[in-house]
Design goal:
The protein is an alpha+beta fold. It folds into 2 domains: 175 residues; 90 residues, no CATH class. The chain contains 5 helices and 11 strands; from the N terminus they run αβαββββββββββααα. Strands 1-2-5-6-8-9-10-11 form an 8-stranded antiparallel barrel. A hairpin with a 2-residue loop joins β7 and β8. It is elongated, with a radius of gyration of 27 Å. The N and C termini lie far apart (87 Å). 25% of the residues are buried. The N terminus is likely disordered.
Amino acid sequence: MLSTATRILSVRRPRLAASVLASLALLATGASAEQQTITIDGKVLTLVHLGNPNAELQLAALGVTAGTAASMKLVLDDSIVGVPHEVTPTYTYLQYDMAIVDVVLTAGQWEAHFAPPPGKESTNFVLVNDDSDYIGFQYDGWNGTALGVDTDTILSQGSTPAYGTFNLHFTNSPPLPATTDALVQDLKKYKYESQVRFFGVGGSITIDFLAAPAGDDAAFARSGQLKAAKKLGGKVLAGLGKLTIAGPDADPLGAEKEALLQDASDAFAIKFVAAINKALKKGGTAPLGESDTQAATDYLMEGLQT
């Protein structure tokens, strides 16, 4: 008479064999043929710490700063059928639920990959619209949302379990004939906005795919611009410190302060442009060009005075 264990094993073997045969049949018919992979290269645009105050330092230790070359690998299930949603008579989008099979962002030694936590698997969808007019704004759109984690949970830490959100955002304005409302398409054709943001409780990173990552010569221009910013900071803070120690009676009308700030701004702008020209003479480019001089100056001056 067969033992209980033997009877269970005899039942499981046919089931296991059937399962294996079914899997082999799927492989033979190319079950993965419905998965389509998209790869695209860009650069890190911004880094922001939130609940993790050391996020930027930890990312820098992994070779990730603004301007670092980055890439995305996106795997989609092309068998998913889009459901139309009409927002206005001139704006309808297709929603593809559970369409993202995998997504990986890579920069330096850091990566964020698709890993939805238990109970949140349904936060996985893509919204696509083609040749839409929404309140006068004419555009194509491809937007995706999924959940995952990143290296050492630098940005995804803080939640239990740790996870962050991928926000994929691609648009064309005006619309282009080359795009459609299909799930799988060439995301490189989206030229108006082309970004992916990964964010969690710890912080966020935004990767831009419109411009190529800066090369060695561009980094040389950045070096000169950062040196100029360092001198600007030293001059402004030292000057404001002296005026503060002297007291309000030393500069009642604020003329000395105004002259200090103007002189520091002018000196920074000259050095900023000089760094660009030096890089260009060596055959390189600059992440921030001459047209960005005033914006960079205003940003630094406002921060220093604050």
